[in-house]
Design a protein that fits this description.
By secondary structure, the protein is an alpha+beta fold. Helices cover about 25% and strands about 15% of the residues. It has eleven helices and twelve strands. The strands form two sheets. It has a ten-stranded antiparallel barrel. α5 crosses α7 and α10 crosses α11. The longest helix has 19 residues. It is globular, with a radius of gyration of 23 Å. The two termini are about 35 Å apart.
């Protein structure tokens, strides 16, 4: 992350797969050496900054699912368990003149239920927690030069007699006498026993990936600048920019090449697969550097301008919306901090590319070549509209040669990817998740003790493209 004294700039986060399971020990707060905490982690379990005062009262659940259950007359049924998506380390002590924010991390949890991804109130299906500590604290050394990693254990929850759920890494409520493992709830206890039963049948270790997202490191780098951005709205440059950033035939797997740009251009008659200016801005910006940063799964630019509205992209550092629909209203949709009353402003966003990295790894059951990238899904949306319109008008014979077959192949691939989900009622998707945080990065004790040493921030979950 940029230092507190530097002007705001946009940082991009990328997924860095772990070569070995032991590599996770050096990621995020798993190491007590905070000099190496730049970036964060994706999937797996949260690496708690404060390993002692983690949230109480059971695992985080979806408020939106709970509301649907109540409306359906199932008020006793709890909301869907939220899944941990990502965390990022972002100190703010100098920026807000608050020594309590010397160490500061934000955690994003999201509901995987498909109904939540398309809901008008999708933001109720996301929980963002902020944890922070002063430099002098009981968990990490003041001077990292004096520590010995193997001897230092104060950053581990078990040092403080806090047991974590083996499934999700949240506070455990009980230990299973059969599995001899700690769990946060009966749901995760049942899931673990399913994995355990399957493991015994194959004589392997329990595979928890169907129930948690694939774990990897989040690495950050500066967003590249591109001169052509200044002329992005120029009509003469429109086709060239759009061709490079939307469904482009560049490097990638076969799913990116199933529908060629020329096919889409010919059928839409506009030289583009979409005419939504927000969508075009989204793909133009993520297609910078000849598409070399298209795999970005997080964009970070904390409080870029004191007068910046959530829909102000003139300086290029605000949230990047995937469509013109379902955007928040700055005046009423972004609440101030409920703890201190300070304004909340944009800090970072989770990009749809992260969905690809978060999908459960199904091991030997995975169908080879059946995964579909976010770019492939967006191509499928456009192509389906084209085919449906041609079918309605009786013009299917006018489609380019092979277009219909390519579309059908992409549909089959998408269906296969859905069938591989760990649970039939879970299919994580979103347009983007924009996080708005307290501009005072306030500290102190919570009125709501159920969150322990953490505070809630606000997230807007924009619906995916339809």
């Amino acid at each position: 992350m940029p230092s507190n004294d530097e002007p705001p700039s946009t940082q991009l986060g990328f997924c860095e797969p772990l070569e070995n399971a032991s590599d996770i020990e050096g990621v995020a707060h798993n190491s007590p050496d905070w000099r190496d905490w730049d970036g964060g982690k994706i999937g797996g379990s949260p690496s708690w900054l404060n390993p002692k005062d983690i949230p109480l009262n059971g695992p985080l659940r979806c408020a939106l699912c709970k509301h649907r259950n109540e409306e359906a007359g199932n008020g006793d049924k709890e909301g869907t368990l939220l899944r941990f998506l990502t965390q990022i380390y972002s100190p703010a002590d100098s920026a807000v003149e608050n020594e309590d924010a010397f160490h500061r991390s934000l955690y994003v949890f999201c509901c995987p239920h498909p109904l939540c991804s398309s809901s008008e109130n999708a933001h109720e299906s996301v929980v963002v927690l902020r944890g922070q500590l002063p430099k002098e604290n009981m968990f990490y050394p003041n001077d990292c030069n004096t520590i010995e990693d193997e001897a230092w254990k104060k950053h581990h929850s078990d040092t403080w007699d806090i047991n974590l759920c083996i499934m999700c890494g949240q506070r455990a409520s009980g230990k299973c006498p059969i599995a001899e493992k700690w769990f946060c709830c009966k749901d995760h206890q049942r899931d673990y026993h399913k994995a355990l039963k399957k493991a015994k049948e194959t004589n392997q270790q329990p595979d928890l990936n169907p129930y948690i997202y694939k774990e990897s490191e989040l690495v950050v780098e500066e967003e590249p600048m591109e001169e052509s951005d200044e002329n992005a709205n120029d009509e003469n440059d429109f086709d060239e920019i759009n061709k490079a950033s939307i469904f482009a035939n560049g490097e990638g797997d076969e799913s990116d090449e199933l529908l060629e740009q020329s096919d889409l251009n010919e059928m839409t008659g506009t030289g583009a697969g979409t005419t939504d200016p927000a969508t075009l801005d989204f793909y133009i910006r993520t297609g910078r550097a000849n598409g070399s940063v298209k795999s970005q799964c997080l964009r970070y630019c904390r409080w870029p301008n004191e007068d910046l509205n959530v829909d102000d992209l003139e300086n290029g550092n605000g949230p990047l919306w995937i469509s013109s629909e379902n955007q928040p209203n700055a005046a009423g949709d972004i609440p101030p901090c409920e703890y201190c009353g300070a304004d909340r402003k944009f800090e970072f966003q989770v990009m749809p590319q992260m969905v690809t990295f978060l999908q459960s790894c199904m091991g030997n059951e995975e169908i080879e070549g059946s995964s579909l990238t976010e770019e492939g899904k967006n191509a499928l949306i456009v192509a389906t509209d084209i085919v449906d319109k041609a079918r309605e008008e009786g013009n299917e014979t006018d489609l380019p040669e092979g277009f219909k077959e390519k579309h059908e192949a992409l549909v089959d691939k998408f269906k296969a990817s859905l069938l591989q989900d760990g649970k039939k009622d879970e299919a994580l998707d979103f347009g983007t998740i924009a996080v708005f945080s307290c501009t005072a990065s306030c500290g102190g004790k919570n009125k709501d003790e159920s969150l322990g040493g953490y505070k809630k921030e606000f997230a807007w979950r924009q619906k995916p493209l339809e």
